[in-house]
Design goal:
Layout (H helix, E strand, L loop, with lengths): L1 H21 L3 E7 L24 E7 L3 H10 L5 E4 H9 L6 E10 L7 E5 L14 E4 L5 H12 L9 E4 L5 H6 L5 E4 L6 H6 E6 H5 L2 E9 H6 L1 H19 L4 H12 L26 H13 L16 H14 L2
Parallel strand pairs: 1-2, 6-7, 6-8
Antiparallel strand pairs: 3-10, 4-10, 5-8, 5-9
Helix pairs in contact: 9-12
Amino acid sequence: MTKIIAGALTALAVLIAGAAANADPVKIRVAWITVPTSLAPILFVKPELAPHLGKTYTLEPQRFAGSSAMTTALAAGDLDIAELSYSSFGYALQNARMDDLRVIADEIQDGLEGYSINYMVLKDSPVKTIEDLKGKVLATNVIGTGTDIGMRAMMRKHGLEDKRDFTIIESNYANMKPLLIGRKADLVTMILAYEDDEVRQVARPLFRLRDVMGVTQILMLAARAPFIETNHAALVDYMEDYLRSLHWYMNPANHTEVVSIVANFNKEPPSRYEPWLLTKADQYRDPNARPNLDAMQRNLQMQKELGFLKTDIDVKSHADLSIVEAAAKRLEAQSGN
């Protein structure tokens, strides 16, 4: 009887192993808004850097106009990994009641030494200090976003409040330059991707995001707990490939090729990206995609203090770093370090 049971168990194990080997790869639907802020649609242009792709998982990058649409897609089960700012993460927990939402990886950070988003005014503007913005027009990308909250925090620090002391208008980042040069706004939010030579010739930073927010977890990757639990092994494979490709992109030796990839994808000249792309002049990316949870906790607290968030959020209870940690350990073992 013992031999019969043992044989049955062995046969069952073989069947399970065979089923697992023949199982369809897990489809991972990943959100992105712009390249190169997000690398999702171009991350695996070199197949040799993603040995698990097509075997244990497939990737479906999906473009979104903003984080609110991503939150809706996550809630409906139409998206697996979202690209969220700290502020949109807070809104998802509070407004969409997605208590199972988890931070799983870093995208970009701001405020580390040498890295910062600038709030700019014209060089010939009468605005010389924060207080000079009283009665002026300030341009933000979207009200309630991470950079918008940073701008409002700086205004409040100097005794200025929206509607009472200044006017805020919304504009996408691509239109910040014409708004400023055309004098339709007195101060604009300028991310590095749009802070070109023309901007620098006529404008200057009045302050930086880091001056008021310190280190900011600008964007992170987030997924819901049931998807993570069901597909953990495939997600680790994906993140291993993600990190391997990220390291290739960040390697200065590959800069010319990386610039060409991004320029071709966006149908723009390489000169647009060559001076800054994935250098110290770009946004900071953690090389092991580990998010700064302590910074994110402070960011969310600022969001609440400014009235954009009603509830306290414990970031670490809404984070699952097991995927990036396991992937990083694999790469370290493969490199022999």
